[in-house]
Design brief:
Structural class: alpha+beta
Order of helices and strands: EHEHEHHEEHEHEEHEEEEEHEEEHEEEHH
Radius of gyration: 21 Å
Keywords: Oxidoreductase
CATH architecture of the largest domain: 3-Layer(bba) Sandwich
Number of domains: 2
Pfam families: DAO
Organism: Ciceribacter naphthalenivorans
Helix content: 25-40%
Shape: globular
Number of strands: 19
Protein name: FAD-dependent oxidoreductase
GO molecular function, one term: oxidoreductase activity
Distance between the termini: 32 Å
CATH topology of the largest domain: FAD/NAD(P)-binding domain
């Protein structure tokens, strides 16, 4: 059985970017990282008339953008009234509108440009495993209904019918959401940006940034360099020491996923009959969906270190069989993982430690919509320099205290939360 092999297939139309860095290359904008954020920003920056170079350390799709669960979920961890209270009426309102738009950014881009991306937009369900979680969903529902969102509360009977399991007391359906093939989407974004004029180089790791005679010099480990007026570091959970303090300001977590063998006709009819995306309300949640070829794919948090064997996915397999006992004997045919970035306040962070050096990080598990939607805002900011053009305020980079010990602390927290979750069953 393949080890750490994702289920997602590349579209037939995809082509690898083939624009190596040139000698004495000079552009308006260098983007470090070719994930959803970097490629969305690149496409929109070219549309604004900028000359753009994207530099990817590995291959497009090899990071979190091509390895995630493909759930396109609008919103943030916080609901509109919290955003208004925390950021004030003007910024809070802008954030609430942005949060509502993130799924639209993905599906509108796919539809408008006819991207070859398998997709289904019929909603995401947040499944409540306790009455307390259900009451919190009722409050979230009230706030979004007041803003005209296409959402609904589900009772125990409705969610059992829509999921195919009886383990939930209720749920919340957000019909603005949906599912995609994430690998196809990031590869099609690369094709779209490349066709528009962005130059994308793969297998070039950026090793240095320095400001020299009014321009940024972006150097790579292979000895190449590009000069640019501005730089966007779009590395997110894969951030290293390129920007001082950035890596230490984030908590990188691994998201482990599995996919079953193709479901039988009876299983397919009973499990997620409407094809919705699901995540539950547990502290250490699981999320799941069906794939285009009729498998069940499920994911959740895994070990912080790199996986060593198939046993590192055992907790996801147990969760799958807890939720769907009928899959007890269904083989697991794929196991894979990717890295996601969390912030301490559970909000994306935008930084500009020096003029012309920009970065946005912190997906909080909603990176498909969030990072795609940020792209045009970041491109617009590069062209205007107006902070009001950004949905989130620009803040200083604040390294997490004792960041070197985060693995011990996060592992302990995950173990504790799993214990609490188990007691609430």
């Amino acid at each position: 059985m393949p080890f750490s092999t994702p289920i997602w297939l590349a579209p037939q139309s995809s082509k690898r970017p083939a624009t190596p860095i040139e000698v004495n290359e000079e552009v308006d904008l260098v983007i470090v990282g070719a994930g959803f954020q970097g490629l969305s920003a690149a496409f929109h920056a070219v549309a604004l008339g900028l000359k753009v170079r994207v530099i990817e350390a590995a291959q497009v799709g090899s990071g979190a953008s091509g390895l995630n669960g493909g759930q396109v979920i609008p919103g943030l961890k916080y609901d509109p009234e919290w955003l208004l209270a925390h950021f004030g009426p003007e910024r809070g309102e802008a954030l609430a509108r942005f949060a509502a738009s993130t799924a639209d950014a993905v599906f509108d881009l796919i539809d408008h440009h006819q991207l070859d991306v398998p997709r289904k937009r019929n909603g995401w369900i947040q499944a409540a495993h306790t009455q307390t979680a259900s009451e919190m969903q009722a409050e979230r529902h009230r706030q979004w209904v007041e803003r005209g969102a296409d959402v609904a509360l589900l009772d125990a009977r409705q969610i059992a019918e829509m999921t195919g399991t009886s383990g939930y007391v209720g749920g919340w359906l957000d019909r603005r959401a949906g599912i995609i093939n994430p690998l196809a989407f990031v590869l099609e974004l690369a094709r779209l940006a490349s066709d528009a004029g962005a130059r994308i180089a793969e297998n070039e790791r950026v090793s240095g940034l320095r400001h020299e005679t009014g321009l940024w010099v972006v150097s790579t480990q292979s000895g190449k360099a590009v000069r640019a007026k501005s730089v966007l570091v779009a590395t997110n959970a894969y951030s290293d020491g390129l920007v001082p303090g950035l890596r230490q300001s984030l908590v990188p977590l691994h998201s482990f996923q599995i996919a079953t063998a193709p479901l039988t006709a009876a299983q397919d009819a009973a499990i997620l009959p409407g094809g919705h995306a699901i995540s539950d309300s547990r502290r250490i949640l699981v999320y799941y969906r069906k794939t285009a070829d009729g498998r069940l794919a499920m994911g959740g948090r895994g070990r912080l270190g790199l996986p060593r064997s198939a046993d590192d996915w055992a907790h996801i397999e147990r969760a799958m069989r807890r939720v769907f006992p009928a899959l007890e004997d269904t083989p697991i045919e794929r196991r894979w993982y990717g890295r996601v970035a969390m912030t301490m306040n559970h909000l994306p962070h935008i930084h500009e430690p020096e003029p012309g050096l920009l970065m946005a990080a912190g997906c909080q598990g909603r990176g498909v919509g969030l990072m795609t939607a940020l792209g045009p805002y970041l491109a617009h900011y590069v062209t205007t320099g107006d902070p009001a053009a950004l949905p989130f305020p620009i803040t200083p980079i604040r390294p997490i205290p004792f960041h070197a010990f985060r693995q011990i602390g996060v592992s302990a927290a995950i173990a504790w939360y799993r214990l609490l979750d188990s007691l609430e069953r």
